[in-house]
Amino acid sequence: MLHLQDIHVTFNGGTILENHALRGISLTVPEHQFLTIIGSNGAGKSTLLGAASGETPTSTGRVEIDNVDVTKWPVYRRAMYAARVFQNPLAGTCATLTIEENMALAYSRVKRRDWRLALSSKRRKLFRERISILGLGLEDRLSDSIGLLSGGQRQAVSLVMATLADSRLLLLDEHTAALDPRMAAFILELTNTVVKDFGLTVMMVTHSMKDALACGDRTIMLHQGKTVLDVAGEERDKLDVAHLLEMFNKVRGEELTDDSLLLS
Amino acid sequence: MSLFAFLGTLEIGLIYGLVALGVYLTFRILDFPDLTVDGSFPMGGAVVATAIVAGMNPWLATVLAFLAGAASGLVTAFLAVRCGILHLLASILTMIAAFSINIRIMGRPNMALLGDATIFTPFENMGVDPTYARLAVVFGLVLLSFLFIIRLLSSDFGLALRATGVNEQMVAAQGGSTALYTYFGLALSNGFVGFAGALFAMTSSFADVTSGVGTIVVGLAAVILGQTLLPGKRIWVAVLAVIIGSILYRLAVAFALSSGMFGMQPSDLNLITATLVAAALIVPKMKGKLQFKKSAKA
After folding, report:
1. Fewer C-beta within 10 Å: chain B N or C terminus?
2. Closest alpha carbon within chain A to B174
């Protein structure tokens, strides 16, 4: 489904602020896999997701989705294949449009946008049906401006929007990080539901090791732009947060011992 | 104010309603402060006058004026999107360049259209009072433009256009090219302004390069005035408000000048307009602050 090959990303190349964010990552995500990505701040989690979505330009490497080379495609073209939900709940929706208008925008993600009316009674019916699974009562507020909703509600709508158009890849960038614990749990549960219902392939970046193990069927850990752990299946089932934390500290420790900082 | 003066004001108000539509598209929809209109308005007049004097069909000449305006919008969009020049500066550059181009188009700074057939001529000769006939044609054209805009903004394409001015990241994530919408929005906006310039030249029987000075402020005044008096989230209300704002603005100005109130003279117009726009921009902010203070007290 998604294939990343030897991806390097360098920010501010050639300057004193040069930051080699990804150092030759190769990753293949087969169809219907739910991959979770963890790592400390600056490990390259979001950059990796950005390389897949097109948000971050890659210095070298190749990005393939569905066996199509999309390395040079801008974000909006890749949107044909991938739906996204952002960390900032306000980023995924347009505040001045109504709920149904936002949904209409998402509905036409993989289509050519033309002169056709954005809101037909057929589409409204579909939107009502889809948004009612949230159980938030939003189906009766379709013509309200989405700016009136809370961050959590907007994030829930963003998730529903991600499933409106036909695509199988879902990219989630710490999409529960900005929410309160209860809403975060609700969104995570909702994520699991839609992923199952629509048979999606998922890449989910998260800060929470617990979520990373509880969701999905494969977990990778990034450190300094490299994959330091890649587990799936039984091996992963045996892991718990304590194990993960231990490994996490181990790679951090190695970093300290081989760090020239200590010698200088 | 005499009936004749009133009808004349209404006609100007409607024509500038098209300018207001254009300004609404850039300032409000795309969040792109676009001063190109100061150049595309006289360009519309210059093109229509030159083409008509050269013997072209007046309707075709009007279409040409629309396209000329749209082209100047595209230049601004190119400078901003492709070359990364600050929006405001990009539009000022086009505006300045348009001044020279407009003189090139006409071959001189101004041009009379006396005696030449315009799009209004057949209607003026239908037996009704020419003033009413002209007004009816202008009204019809503005109505068509109004319907076109609200239909456009309700379409799939229009929805993405509206979202571009608010959340570019979201539009891209939903598969929309924000560059395309910026190009389109600026072209359409300046097309309407060029169209307005053409109508203005044909109703007043002359085209003049300096007629564009302050077009942006007048358009902005109409947008702000209309949306303050006729607030509403629905898109057709917002678009209608902009046109009504333009008419009210013209009426207020004509009334103030004709009644000789406060000893004002026509040349004070720019000062009044600027003050009006500044006030309309400040008042909503003051209102917000006052409400905040009140709620803090309570």
Report:
1. C
2. A109
Q: What is the pLDDT of residues B47-76, one digit of tens each?
A: 999 999 999 999 999 999 999 999 999 999
Residue of B nearest to A107 (CA): B174
Residue B188 lies in a domain: yes
Q: Are the beta carbons of B16 and B219 closer than 8 angstroms?
A: yes
Token pair for residue A263?
A: 């010698």
In a domain, residue B274? The reply is no
CB-CB neighbors (< 8 A) of A91 in chain B: 167, 169-170
Please tell me what DSSP assigns to residue B24: I
Structurally, how many domains does chain B consist of? 1
Report residue A256's pLDDT band, with 50, 70 and 90 as the boundaries.
low
B178 close contact with A: CB closer than 8 A = yes
Task: Look at residue A91 and tell me whether its pLDDT is greater than 90.
Answer: yes
Cα(B67)–Cα(B61) distance, rounded to whole angstroms?
10
In a domain, B286, yes or no: no
B chain contacts of residue A123, beta-carbon cutoff 8 Å: none
Choose the weakest-confidence range: A2-16, A148-162, B71-85.
A2-16
ipTM: 0.90
- If one looks up domain A2-262 in CATH, what number appears? 3.40.50.300
pTM of the entire predicted model: 0.91
A142 shares contact with chain B (CB less than 8 Å): no
Instruction: Spell out the residues 6+ positions from residue A232 whose beta carbon is closer than 8 angstroms to its own.
Output: A217, A218, A219
